[in-house]
Amino acid sequence: MIILKIILRNAFRNKLRTLLTVLGITTAILAFGLLRTMVGTWYSGVKASSATRLVTRNAVSLVFPLPISYLQKIRQLDGVESVSYGNWFGGIYIDEKNFFPNFVVEPKAYLHLYPEFILPDDEQEDFVMDRRGCVVGRKIAERFGWKIGDIITLKGTVFPGNWDLVLRGIYRGRDKTIDETQFFFHWDYLNERIKQLMPRRAEQVGFYIVGVSRAELAPQVALNIDAMIKNSIAETMTETEKAYQQGFVAKTTALLL
What we know:
Layout (H helix, E strand, L loop, with lengths): L1 H10 L3 H33 L5 E6 L7 E2 L2 H6 L4 E9 L13 E4 L1 H7 L3 E2 L2 H9 L3 E5 H7 L6 E6 L4 E13 L9 E4 H11 L6 E2 L1 E6 L5 H12 L6 E5 H11 L1 H4 L1
Parallel strand pairs: 4-9, 6-8
Antiparallel strand pairs: 1-11, 1-12, 2-10, 3-4, 3-11, 5-8, 6-9, 7-8
Helix pairs in contact: 2-9
């Protein structure tokens, strides 16, 4: 009991020091918890990866874009069934603490390539038809109390400005491995505004999602894509979706050591 009293007296002898110590420990715990949540989400993505999906990105780094003109070239390759494309948007909803992954995508082919995102037919149609429309995962909708028809404003970081979007669909995962925290809207809507604000960044994408007709064709299709675009202004690196997701997970190891 005497020792406890001594500890308490010393702890509060310098209240500012004690407050800063508690604040520092709390911040460290919260940061670690956020990182663990993000890594857990990426591991879920690895488990949910499809053997018939490839990801094509810039060979130098993810931060460098690819021209939209590659779309038709990739579509013409043998074994390619469907192609979509998009960018990491990185928008903020109200405050930086409200983190969730948000992308711009080509909607019709994207939803075809991801049948594990279960979306009612009417909501899917409304989303495809509305260029300002967006689709969110069930968990994000529940977290913020969003409902169909709500106007959601994202504050751009990679692409500056306020982006007003109309919630047209709420998807649920086919099973427990599917991430229900994603947010995506139309690449066309982004591109139209970028043409006006930053013309040099228009007509560019961050990645292509390539669907192949059979899983055993994936390695050869990946080689064919990269060979076709070799020696161009923006060479590509194509890999299976699983390998792409594992690359993200591998980069987090140092953060958690």
